[in-house]
Write a structure and sequence with these properties.
Elements (H helix, E strand, L loop, with lengths): L1 E5 L3 H12 L3 E5 L3 H8 L10 H10 L3 E4 L2 H5 L4 E4 L14 H10 L8 E4 L7 H11 L5 E4 L9 H6 L4 E4 L3 H10 L1 H4 L5 E4 L1 H32 L3 H9 L20 H14 L5 H24 L8 E5 L14 H11 L3 E5 L5 H6 L4 E2 L3 H5 L4 E4 L4 H4 L3 H7 L4 E4 L6 H5 L4 E3 L9
């Protein structure tokens, strides 16, 4: 079986590399020629654990190829996956122009017996609309939908050993083709669920919206904890032990960001209204998460007595989560921008050394270690929960800062261990009296 993946972003590149790891011949297509040139040289454009090793391995094995020539990349493929972006428009709806552009480009080249699989996240009804779009061009191929559930920072592991695979199909032929592509996972007893197109499309949005609501819920509980004397981490652990709830996505912090939750919740709310359905829980999730950043800014400013002008602010971590270099909709953007507008001198250290971040933040200083970043700091602010920060020697950090003030928006430390080193400590969802 020959597989082609159109798009080499997070989803496309990880999917292409991992399908080649399954043993298939895979061609990845992208219209960004410089990006393709880098990939052909073995340069990985994203920060993702184990991706570079597997990419190099399968390129050397002759199973993985990269090209910007759509015709050449598609003409021999049995399965063609579309994995291009669907960013949010100004009204919150999904921008499908990249998908239709990609489908239009490959239409003259795809084999009649091939199966076209949409892997990009799309509103309900899009896959069926793409089928009709192709028919109008005289191209009659099987069309299916295969949502991705990859976590940035763990995408390779998630692809190779997922919780489940969902495949929206309308024919036995498409079902057999996709079953063959995912056959290596049958040996691992991974649940593989075949559904209709619309069910598969909605399952992606429903999953992300539910997880986003869990994040927002625990942040609202954190607000209450700070007022009533409870500890949000203990509350999260207590409710997470309930199997009906589960412990994941119950970490209080500055709110969700990234490429999925923000755009998918907005898109779900938007296209639900097109069907005449209101989604008040999803709408409130979006609103609450947007407000969360202002609350985190207020927490930082309160700790500084509302004065950061000419103060040295050491920021630790700016990517939207650990183990990625992704800055899309990261809470750090609005927080750092506010500090700069208030006259702070901001220094940043992020273990990913994200080029995205360096292009976003202007007028800041960059460091190569935690300790250098905190030299002479008036306040240290933790924005991303990188594992490296958990191993920091707080006594050494205390020796380097000018003013022992630590605002931990990820609750990396406990109150006693920080206070024992002489820091004034502010965290999230813990009693203000205890801090």
């Amino acid at each position: 079986m020959k597989i082609t993946v159109v798009g080499t972003g997070y989803v496309g590149l990880v999917s292409g590399v991992c399908f080649s790891e399954f043993g298939f011949d895979v061609t990845c297509i992208d219209n960004n020629k410089s990006k393709i040139t880098d990939l052909q040289r073995g340069k990985v454009p994203i920060y993702e654990d184990d991706l570079e090793r597997l990419m190099t391995k399968n390129m050397h094995a002759g199973r993985l190829f990269f090209t910007s020539d759509t015709g050449a990349g598609v003409k021999d493929a049995d399965l063609v996956f579309i994995a291009v972006g669907t960013p949010s428009k100004s009204d919150g709806s999904a921008d499908l122009s990249y998908i239709y552009g990609a489908v239009g480009d490959l239409a003259p080249h795809i084999r009649k017996d091939a199966t076209l699989v949409i892997k990009s996240t799309v509103p309900v009804g899009t896959t069926r609309a793409i089928k009709n779009f192709l028919l109008k061009k005289g191209v009659d191929v099987e069309v299916a939908f295969n949502p991705e559930f990859l976590r940035e920072g763990a995408a390779v592991a998630d692809f190779l050993r997922p919780d489940r695979i969902i495949l929206g199909v309308e024919s036995i032929k498409a079902e057999k083709a996709l079953a063959r592509a995912y056959r290596p996972l049958y040996m691992l007893s991974i649940p593989i669920l075949f559904t209709g197109l619309e069910t598969a499309e909605l399952s992606k949005y429903a999953a992300n919206a539910f997880l986003a609501m869990k994040v927002t819920f625990i942040n609202e509980i954190a607000n209450l904890c700070e007022k009533c004397g409870a500890d949000v981490q203990e509350v999260a652990h207590a409710i997470g032990l309930d199997k009906r709830i589960g412990e994941l996505f119950l970490q209080a912090g500055p709110g969700y960001g990234g490429s999925c939750f923000p755009k998918d919740t907005c898109a779900l709310s938007t296209f639900a209204k097109e069907f005449g359905v209101e989604t008040p829980l999803v709408d409130e999730t979006i609103k609450s998460n947007n407000e969360r950043r202002s609350k985190m800014i207020k927490k930082i400013m309160d700790a500084c007595h509302n004065d950061v002008k000419n103060k040295n602010v050491a920021v630790l971590g700016v990517t939207f989560k650990a183990n990625t270099d992704d800055m899309r909709d990261s809470p750090s953007i609005s927080i750092v921008d506010y500090l700069l507008k208030e006259g702070a001198r901001v220094k940043i250290y992020d273990p990913s050394f994200s080029e995205q971040a360096k292009n976003i933040f202007k007028g800041v200083y960059w460091s190569t270690t935690v300790y250098d970043n905190c030299n002479d700091a008036d306040i240290v602010v933790i924005l991303t929960d990188w594992a490296e920060f958990r191993a920091v020697n707080l006594r050494e950090l205390r020796r380097r800062v000018r003013n022992p003030l630590l605002v931990d928006l990820r609750n990396i430390y406990t109150v006693p261990e920080v206070k024992a080193t002489g820091f004034v400590y502010h965290s999230v969802g813990r009693s203000l009296l205890n801090e």
